[in-house]
Amino acid sequence: MFIKETNKYYLLEAPMGLAIFNNNRLFSMRKYSSVDNAFKNITGIKNLNFSDEIRLFFVEYKKAVKDYDFLIVNDKDLKEYLEREINIRAEVDISAIKKIKNEFFSVFTPSLSLYNQYVVLLSKKLYSNNELINLSNIYETLDTTINTRCMRIREWYAMHFPELSSFISSNNEFLNFLIKINKIDGGDSLTDNQKINELILNTVGSKEFTNDDINKIVNDAREILSTIEYKSRIKNLLNKKTKEILPNTYDLLEDSNLIIKFLKKTNGSLNELSLMPSSTLQILGAEKSYNKNISNKDNKPPKHGFIYSTSYVQNCNNKGRISRMLANKISICLKIDVSILFDG
């Protein structure tokens, strides 16, 4: 009985091109012409949306090998796509692909500076959405810092004028009033608010502050107000960047908060987020409730996660239905935005 000898070919995906090896020898290769070309082709392969040159590369491979030969790749989705669309027999073997990665420099022979340039520029293109997460982290840190400092200054000033803190709940207004009613000379002065004037005259505060105490409190209040203004600028920048990267999704939600929450669940991967079904987007953020439902069917499954915070869901009666409709629209917008981002 004649036994066919099966050859295995190994696909190397690199920042500067594609190469196929057989028996540790280069079988075929295709270099990317530029960083933009590399970005287009890398994202195309990742999204299973091959450009003409990449499709031609695999078609030529198909013509050059036997029908029973295997192409070893490192991704299951890519394997299934090659088998379905180009009729290439493929297998997934990540460890084998890792071994041939050492052949990269011998094949593409780039200078180290050119290689680093490709890696850096591609990283900026492929992971620019991490900027949104970093800005969001700065915003959240500032928010926590402001709230903590406001709580401390309220406690501090309450020893002298406790009524002000209970009368004004907004931190911003509280700080502005605190500065307004305290002169640098240390005395309380009347304001244009009659209620606060009455509180000043009839305060039950037991501690008299010195001029130095008042100066420190007022200066601290001004610093906090400056931080609040900076936080506002960060928020505006975050919204602006989000709209640049995901314009349709941002226009739908009119805020970056929900988008950032989604991104953090995918570790900043726009591609992974865009590939999520709308049913997953709908309950993203409600994993605990979902897991409880899986372990015990008596628990009702969640109808919404992060999406509950939007005004669309908040201002309606049938929240489950609206959550589902909104998740569908978000899914469509994400797919359009990511497609434009990767192809453009």
UniProtKB/TrEMBL annotation:
Residues of the Nop domain: 245-344
Superkingdom of the organism of origin: Eukaryota
Protein name: NOP58
Family: Belongs to the NOP5/NOP56 family.
Species classification: Eukaryota, Fungi, Fungi incertae sedis, Microsporidia, Hepatosporidae
GO cellular component terms, semicolon-separated: box C/D methylation guide snoRNP complex; small-subunit processome
InterPro entries, alphabetized: Helix_hairpin_bin_sf, Nop56/Nop58, Nop_C, Nop_dom, Nop_dom_sf, NOSIC
GO MF annotation list: snoRNA binding
PROSITE patterns: NOP (PS51358)
Gene responsible for this protein: NOP58
Pfam families documented for this protein: Nop
Entry coiled-coil feature ranges: none
